[in-house]
Design brief:
By secondary structure, this protein is mainly alpha-helical. It has helices spanning 2-20, 22-35, 84-92, 99-104, 121-130, 153-166, 169-185; strands at 41-47, 53-59, 109-111, 138-140. It has a two-stranded antiparallel ribbon. It has a two-stranded parallel sheet with strand order 3-4.
Amino acid sequence: MYSFVKRFVDIICSLAGLIVLSPLFLILFICIRLDSKGPAIFIQKRIGRKLSHFYIYKYRTMRIDTPRDVPTHLLDNPDHFYTKMGKFLRRTSLDELPQLLNILRGEMSIVGPRPALWNQYDLVRLRESNGSNSVRPGLTGWAQINGRDELPISEKAQLDGEYIEKMGLIFDLKIVFMTIMAVKSGKGLKR
């Protein structure tokens, strides 16, 4: 029953967010295009619910010569690749706003495990063992508010498994509130 309620909330919130934030979407789009060469939207293959693949939308925060399917924390010198606008977008998590389209399309949810890159086999395997690949990935999740980029893969997967065990409306609302606090503080962010 909760999955139906969760999907309904996802549709309403993502649609409302797209409408209300449309002026901000336009401003960010223009600023990114003025800041550096390349498209404003970054599209990347990710792992979705039940190991399906989908393409995630994000505002581009890095130069167009950045290695394509490498997680940021695995780049030798990530700061070398950030655009000026990209640093701001990552610090404020505004780069994630286009994922409201992924949520509306049913590829993602507001809360769930963050979608793994298609080639993060270690994370996908660990999530498969704890059942966290069975739900839609989220814009935010339990692992993000418990360390974000500071967590090793094994801990992220463990927290994703905890989310599956505790998943419910109250827990999701707690995660959304804690996400707002984490974004405001910048805690755990290595972007």
